[in-house]
Amino acid sequence: MKYLKKKLTIENVKVNLIAKKYGTPAYCYSYSKLKRNIENFKKSFQSFSPLICFAVKSNTNRDLIKEIKKFGLGADVVSMGELMMAVKAGINPKKIVFSGVGKTFEEINYAISKNILLINAESESEIKLIEKIAKLKKKKIEIGVRLNPNIDAKTLRQISTGKKDNKFGVNSSTFIKLVNNYKNSKYIKLKCLSVHIGSQILDHKPYEKMLKSIIKILKKINYKFEFIDLGGGMGISYNDQEKKLDYKKYCIAINKFLNEYNSKIIFEPGRSIIGNTGTLISKIIYIKKSEKKNFIILDAAMNDLMRPALYGAVHKIMPALKKTKILKKNHEFVGPICESTDSFLNLKKFQDLKENEIIVICDVGAYGMSLGSNYNLRPKPIELMIKGSKIKIIKKRQKYLDFI
What we know:
Radius of gyration: 23 Å
CATH topology of the largest domain: TIM Barrel
CATH class of the largest domain: Alpha Beta
Mean pLDDT: 92
């Protein structure tokens, strides 16, 4: 996004024109940013050509997944719905991995029927269930086993997944036991060691610790995995102060790992692919002035963007029309939902705003719409893809009659 003659634009389209034509709130995705993110990711790790499986949970829009598929990416899914969506979008089943701690009989059965690359199991009970289904189907199923390496990713507590007190994966001793118990199974083929330590990681050092932890365990077992699934979690900069994850240093660490243990690498990026492509356009309904602050009441709410309420996440807000007058007074950008947590951002100063003006909430491509709901019986917003000067509706605005 950039300002042209003080008017905010997404690619070649003015934000105010989008709001006027399609209404608000509206999710917009920049195709050029999506393309650039994927090409940069692939280039950064080209020395070992990983299988890149887009984390569908970060954004479940079918049209976006179709575009991502055109760049040769696979999919990381965590539910039957996500698996169905990935298949519907045309993702090659042999590029799909199925993660998650609570896969049901129905989900595992469906995944097997689609001949996906891997089911990444997260407990002995799950492996037993996969083996039971495989026996019924009289076929050998290829799986991964998820290791919990007890690594602190130095990220938000709510999105940490690799510490011993998190629900994900199995500890090192259990992992070794499972490999020994199932490496000669008639119905299970252990193909992958899987690991994922968290989300919105901006430092390469936790990844280095993770790789060292994996090597230690691999040296204790007499078994060769075809794949090492390193998960995702690569963060993006949500504000000007946050540093970006150094892909180059992470790549060096992985190449060092591969010198000791030669295998194919799988990545499961979501946010780093889609996060900064998305913006949420919203209109100011009211400005409620109090002694200490101005409440900027928007027509977008926490049901449209849950991250600030759920994690305390911070998203930059930009006005559609840039002005020179700055008000040195607290501004709290809030939604109309009957919850005090329906608040997006607090700022000590902001430009002078008027009711009915348009603002943009930035970097909402990941976990924006995918966490959306109909709370307060609010319809979900329209989704648009911007490609140069062209606008394509990739999901229609929900109507009240769709859910009432």
